[in-house]
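ERR on first pass: missing label on line 2. Operator R.T. fixed the label and resubmitted. Corrected input:
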Amino acid sequence: MANTNTVMIEKYRNNFLKEVEANVEEGEWVKMCMQCGVCSGSCPLGPHWDHPPQELFMMIRAGKREAVLSSSSMWMCTSCYNCVVRCPRGLPITHIMHGLASYANKLGLAPKNQPTKKFSKIFWDNITKTGRANELKMGLSLYFMDGMGSGVKNAMANQKLGMAMMKTKRMNPMEITGGHGIKDTGGLQAILKKAREIEDAKLKKQ
Amino acid sequence: MGDVIATNQSILVIGGGISGITAAIEAAECGKQVILIEKEPAIGGRISQLYKYFPKMCHPTCGLEINLRRIKANKNIRVMTLTEVTDVAGKAGDYTVTVKVAPRYVNDNCTACGECNKAVTGEFDDAFHLGMKKRKGAYLPYAMAYPQRYVIDPAIIGSDDASKAKAACKFNAVDLEMKAQSVTLKAGAIIWATGWKPYDAEKIQPYGYKRYPNVVTNMELERMMDPFGPTGGKILRPSDGQEARNIAFIQCAGSRDKNHLKHCSRICCMASLKQTTYLREKYGDEGKATVYYIDIRAIDRIDDFYQKVQADPNVSFVKSKVANITQNKENSNVILNGVNTEGYQRYSNEHDLVVLATGMEPSIPANAFPMKITINENGFIEQDEANGAIFAAGCSADALDVNRAVQSATASALRAIQVVNRVAGMEG
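pass 2 clean. output:
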């Protein structure tokens, strides 16, 4: 994938905005930003971002490719859609944030230990296996995300919640053996494989 | 005023604000017969509610007086107040317009002595002061109102107040039997000048207008500056009646926003820049104004006004669309929250009062016109041949300042004159 990165650098040279427009979901909206700042101001996680959305958009226009793609900012988006609702120009900011994160991930530039990124990977691996979320395994993978020690600590801390979920049948301890799934797991895998092929072909064509 | 008989050679002007007044006067001074219709009890419109005009910082009352004198001196103009258009039929050069005239309950015997006002007791919100002040049920719309005749609020008809007003009048001017009537007028051309209304600030939920007392609109600030207005010319905080010295202005409050008005209302930047000078006028170096903006649009020759305001050390500018307003519970100060685009710093700034620079919305909603007319996506009337001889003037055509509204009105007067001249040529 680092190779794709080099290809993209070559291809778009000094025009990162064009690269974003062509490769990032909803990227063609970036140039519509008028830098009013209402997205950043209304973001509930705003104070925790390195670069709020409007700054990311300006950085894209300014060609700060490395800084944008390796930023942890877009990974902070919780999809609350506050910014989309408030944006006076109707930019799909949430989607652009996810688009940027996904593109950075494809190129291998996303920050390595970003927790949201880790969570996304865990969630994806979990749900694609059987087509249904396996709550038990997902919980465990999350708890042990940062190693054995913190995993046990996390699990103990959430013991009560886990028990309550089991009691109300929101989580089944038997899921550890494999868990429930959709009827045609093979079909789902085939769909995902095909989708991946299409996506990869798109990147290669560049 | 002489008798004006409406024919296909007369011009009908709808709306008695600065645009309608200008169009009517220009056409009448060219010798055309003009009927000027206004739905309020007096002409003058929005400008009569302003304290000062930019960029010359003169008082609108002065310009209004000149225009009223021109109307009084011209026998070609007939002014009809409390009148609204209900139907427009016909085509260019031959329109039949139906209007509804609401009863004033005061006839032209009125000398504006004010005895009826003294006699009545019930009070109502004064629309001229945007509801910030009360007026009685028998009233003069505003000090300079033309015609200088009192009005009786329909709400007091049938009450004791009505009979008190009638009894107090020495000139037999109060006529409580007046009824609404429908009148049909002929016209060769129509000038549509129904103007604008301020965008409803309550719709901008995160700014807390009506939820926090110290959030006001730019038009409300204009009323506060009026020496005879609700605060006697002082800028007072609605929460505690204290003078506000540290005032924030929020630009594009409802304008340039897909969720509200898509268009730039054009006047609000200059209006806020003008209002920062009110602070200097009131407090000298003691006042502090902060303008929160996306970009300041002080176009062409009024840019030097902007530069003068920028040079004032007591006025600062923050490039940011404010995300939301909260309130300091202890002192009811407003707290503006957002991110400054110049440096991307997050701020929470406390001010005594915040003024929302609300934009212009056409006063007639797109679906409420009594005839077929071409409207653009912002609700303003487009110039279109399909409109026949109905010409938009001033803020019916676009969001305009007074200067540009007057230009637009003069242009529409010329277009209307061309039509009635053509009719005159054919009718001989």
